[in-house]
Amino acid sequence: MELENKVPEQLDSIKNDNLKALEKLFPSVIKDGELDIDALKEEIGNFEEVKNERYDFTWAGKQEAKKKAQEDVMARTLKFIEKDSVNPDSTENLYIEGDNLEVLKLLRQNYRGAIKMIYIDPPYNTGNDFVYNDNFKISQKESDKKQGYIDENNQRLQKNSKDSNRFHANWLTMMYPRLKIARDLLSEDGVIFIHIDDNEMENIGKVCNDIFGEENFINIITIKTKIGGVSGSSEGKSLKDVTEFIWAFCKNKNEIFLNPVYNKIRLFERIQDYIDEGKSWKYTSIITKIGDKILLKRDEKNDMNFYGYNILETQSIFSYAKEHKISIEEVYNKFADKIFRTTNAQSSIRQKVIKETKNYKYPIFSCEYIPIKGKNLGQKIEILYKSGSTSEQRNMVMFLSDVVTKENGEYFYLDKITSLWDDIEYNNLTKEGNIEFQNGKKPVKLLQRLINLSTNNNDIVLDFFSGSASTAHAVMQLNAEDGGNRKFIMVQIDEKVKEDTEAYKFLNEINKPTNICEIGKERIRRVGEKIKKEIEEKNKNLKDEEELKKVPDIGFKVFRTADTNINWRKIRDISNSESLPFNEPDRLDFIENYNDKDIVYEVLLRQRDLPLSEKLETLDTIGNRTYLYASSYLICLETDITENLIKELADLNPLPIKFIFRDSAFKSDINLKESTFRYLKTLVEKNSGINKRTYTIEFI
């Protein structure tokens, strides 16, 4: 059997993927699998070497950081920890324990281009932080221990103290490869938020410009933390620091759309604020009568309809209140959907309205269409435009009902957020999530706002410096509030918790190992139970017209980085051998202390675009070691393959799109192996229609 039908030992190579991408753009620049730099220069019009100096952000160790990003992960996998998981058969959430650089590389093949939002809160490099030491070579452990880079428990952490002459370089070298791979995981419309203070504020922006491109910078969000800043020795040397920052970058600025997010303020408080600030409150007119809606033109290409209304009567709020002898407040409360303002803000829709209606004379026009992005994505909406003194003056009508929300009979004005966030409470954070943890917790409200800003209901959120799992908390809470189905992936190294802390005492009390991962997992469990209890209580007390509220996904699968479970070398060695020791197939194929689920997930890590959150089931009717993943991938770990077994697999309905077998299970029956390959491959291709897969049958 040809080797290309083997499950690959190595995950997809970042270098090879980059070469393939270049080859797709410029076929002539890849020669014998290597990049021809001179040919590439010519392809981009550079026919002579540029010798002029140019700007380049660099530091001692940047080349090493680039190499780290491209180094392959060998003989490593993710081990499923079922006992720590919650609802593992149904959940779509993941919690992964391990070095985040290693984890990102392991996830790259499955989640490339799949993550909508990444939030990270990395070490701020204050001089007391620990940064990851990314040297995975066992041979250097002893020297690293002597230098203090690896502790007595072989933790890959090193203190980055300010007296180091590589203080900034160490931190940048740690961050660069992680951000480089994070970019690969982002979807084309994906966004990354990096939470930072002023220690590396400037440098993180430069690194992100390097990786994401200056053109994909979105904003720097400034957060007023409302906590004390510098004191003591810094008095008289600097101002008290009460801010932190979030750098926002995207994968592709042309593809992103930030959802409108608002602060809620009582409507009449907002009106009074405008008056007190000497500003003009614009929502002061009411439509009292509007005529018939007349179709003027249909743009079938863009699925747009343009209308005119033959009558429009308006009145000021104040005269309407006086005429009807009611208060201004009553007018606002009764007619929020008719109170309006106009704006001449430029937009592509407005230009289309001007073009299609300039030959008509109506007091008001409208455009009806289905937005392809934004909060009204996929829903038909109508926007009104009020005529002006000329045929090309069309001012958009904005209704008060679009900028207010009604809660318990009271209107709240929705004030669109800016890049200054000074309304988020930072006090009492240590107990948020019902978990005592003082090391850098972030407010759930802050994270919910970022999630609202950048995701839709079914997107995936990743945090690879997850700490106490505030991001997971925010995802579940937001899903509970708006009925969304967002998924999270949390990644955290099992850093030890200091002994003289409340967190350490807490973990001892609940009989858990004293590391940060246990803090995060326990928080997710407790938040999930709280959400479930609150929804169930609310459902017990529903009024007649209210619908039952659904409990969101409050589970999570736990994985941990570990050594490979598959004996790749022996499998490789026996591929060319005529004498195969089949009497002990498990010892031949797998590493000691393996279990079947670990084998299955290690194989799945080598499949493209296949999330690890799908359902794994055992097909007991066929064999106790035959597994079906995501109803599509059949992994057969049986030690003996027979014609009857193959026929049972072929009768599965629906038929899996890929079958994976053990080489050793065919013993020395090469004919059975080849006939199995041809038979199942033909069946899968016949059933897959136009969505053909390159390899439908693979062997371990």
Distance between the termini: 12 Å
- Side-by-side strand order of the widest sheet: 3-25-4-24-23-5-8-10-9-22
Shape: globular
**Largest sheet: number of strands, sense, barrel closure:** 10 strands, mixed
Total beta strand runs: 30
Unreliable residue runs: 136-149, 229-233
Determine Rg (CA atoms, Å). 30 Å
What labels would you give this structure?
single chain, 700 residues, alpha/beta, Rossmann fold, 4 domains, ten-stranded mixed sheet, 30 strands, globular
Structure in words:
This protein is globular. By secondary structure, the protein is α/β, with parallel strands linked by helices. It has a 10-stranded mixed β-sheet, sandwiched between helices. An 8-stranded antiparallel β-sheet has the order 13-14-17-18-19-16-12-15. It folds into 4 domains: 12-56, no CATH class; 92-129 and 164-228 and 240-261 and 421-540 and 549-557, Vaccinia Virus protein VP39 (Rossmann fold, 3-Layer(aba) Sandwich), CATH 3.40.50.150; 278-407, no CATH class; 573-699, no CATH class. The model is unreliable at 136-149 and 229-233 (pLDDT under 50).
List the helices and strands and how they pair.
Blueprint: H1 14-25, E1 30-31, E2 34-35, H2 37-43, H3 62-70, E3 76-80, E4 94-97, H4 100-111, E5 115-120, E6 130-132, H5 141-146, E7 157-159, H6 167-185, E8 186-196, H7 201-212, E9 217-224, E10 243-250, E11 262-266, H8 267-276, E12 285-290, E13 293-299, E14 304-309, E15 312-316, H9 317-324, H10 328-334, E16 339-343, H11 348-357, E17 364-369, E18 381-387, E19 394-399, E20 404-407, E21 410-416, E22 420-421, H12 444-454, E23 460-463, H13 470-482, E24 487-492, H14 502-509, H15 516-540, E25 557-563, H16 568-575, H17 585-589, H18 596-604, E26 616-618, E27 626-629, E28 633-636, H19 643-650, E29 658-661, H20 670-688, E30 697-699
Parallel strand pairs: 4-24, 4-25, 5-8, 5-23, 9-22, 23-24, 28-29, 29-30
Antiparallel strand pairs: 1-2, 3-25, 6-7, 8-10, 9-10, 11-21, 12-15, 12-16, 13-14, 14-17, 16-19, 17-18, 18-19, 20-21, 26-27, 27-28
Helix pairs in contact: 3-6, 4-6, 6-7, 9-10, 12-13, 13-15
GO biological process, one term: methylation
InterPro entries: DNA_methylase_N4/N6, DNA_methylase_N6_adenine_CS, N4/N6-MTase_EcoPI_Mod-like, SAM-dependent_MTases_sf
Domain DNA methylase N-4/N-6: 115-500
